Amino acid sequence: MPELPEVETVRAGLERHVVGRAIESVQVLHPRAVRRDLTGPDGFAAALKGRRPQSADRRGKYLWLAVGDGEALLAHLGMSGQMLLVPPDTPLSPHVRVRFTFADSGPDLRFTDQRTFGHLMLVPFAHGDVADGAVPGAAGRLLPSPIAHIAPDPLEAAFDPADFAARLRRRRTGIKRALLDQSLISGIGNIYADEALWRARLHWARPTETLRRGEVSRLLEAVSEVLTSALAAGGTSFDSLYVNVNGESGYFSRSLEAYGRFGLPCGRCGTPIRRDSFMNRSSFSCPRCQPRPRSAHW
Ligand SMILES: [Zn+2]
Fold first, then answer.
1. Which residues of the chain have pLDDT under 50?
2. Measured between alpha carbons, how far is residue 5 from residues 62, 147, 189, 258, 265 in Å?
3. Nearest Cα to 49, choosing from 68, 64, 33, 36?
4. Per-residue confidence (pLDDT) for residue 186, from 0 to 100
5. Taken in order 18, 20, 22, 26, is the CA torsion positive or negative?
């Protein structure tokens, strides 16, 4: 599943290859891809014709293009979504859900999604907590209305570590649940939560109200390191014309220390990594580096 680093890689690709180009036509090849757009496939396609994306932005795992008239083309890649840039005469692959062609006759943008959990929608920007005169994508941060409630992600300038620490301690939940809560901090999925907790030497069920200030700083530092190194690994595929995400960046396969390593030795102390069940999934951690807390929110 694409996580924040992969989504940021796609955003950078859209910025480079799509921003500034006039959309000539939009074909919705599978209605599920625009299921949350209130105007339906035909309305979605008609409204985007002739628009010229002005900026490509991201919060957490949501991506959007500002397309004028106070509106954004908002995308979530779901489990398997990809944004592909291909020459217009390339045959349509079976999993293309939405095809955008451009007036400059340059490469098409094709939203491809095998499992169809991803989606696109045309939405207004939210008003309210945004300074007058802010422009989409600038520091003032206009957000598309469906995601206006989502907290900043740790790679954004808007992310405030002190505010995060205070809200985290008030949550009274397990630390991993808190990391996955998009209203507290966005963009962290199961993989990067396990990796950050391993680096910070914190057990996933540790109650947030017992975290000391230094532990919260250590955790935030670990989160940033994990995301930044994943971004560096995932960003290398970007010199090509293809804007491509497959959830398996170089980081995913090479640098994982905890996630998916059940029974393999911890890279720090050699103790076999354990696996616990967690919210219908798994949590991977080192029994020695990340001891179970005396009290815990399982
Ligand atoms: Zn260890």
1. 129-139, 235-251
2. 12, 19, 11, 18, 26
3. 68
4. 92
5. positive
Question: From ligand 1's centre to the CA of 247, what distance in Å?
Answer: 26
The yes-or-no answer on residue 3 being catalytic is yes
Determine phi and psi for 124, rounding to 5 degrees: -80, 155
The region, left, alpha or beta by phi > 0 then psi within -120 to 50, assigned to residue 34 is alpha
- Tell me which of 87, 88, 281, 291 is the catalytic residue: 281
The answer to whether 230 touches 257, Cβ cutoff 8 Å, is no
Q: Which of 11, 51, 58, 61 is catalytic?
A: 61
The answer to whether residue 281 is catalytic is: yes
How far is Cα 108 from Cα 29, in angstroms, rounded to an integer?
14
| Max Cα–Cα distance, the chain, nearest Å | 63
pLDDT one-digit tens code per residue, 154-184: 988 889 999 999 999 898 899 999 999 999 9
Structure tokens that stand for 142 in this block: 């206009």
Say which amino acid occupies 226: V
Q: Is 215 a catalytic residue?
A: no
Residue 265's identity, in one-letter code, is: P
> How many angstroms does the Cα of residue 209 sit away from the middle of ligand 1?
24
CB atoms within 10 A of CB 270: 9
- Can you say whether the dihedral through the CA atoms of 269, 273, 276, 278 is positive or negative? positive
Nearest to 174 by CA among 204, 139, 199, 211: 204
DSSP secondary-structure letter at 187?
Answer: S
Annotated catalytic residue 2: yes
Which tens digit of pLDDT belongs to each residue from 215-253?
999 999 999 998 888 777 764 343 333 444 433 444 455
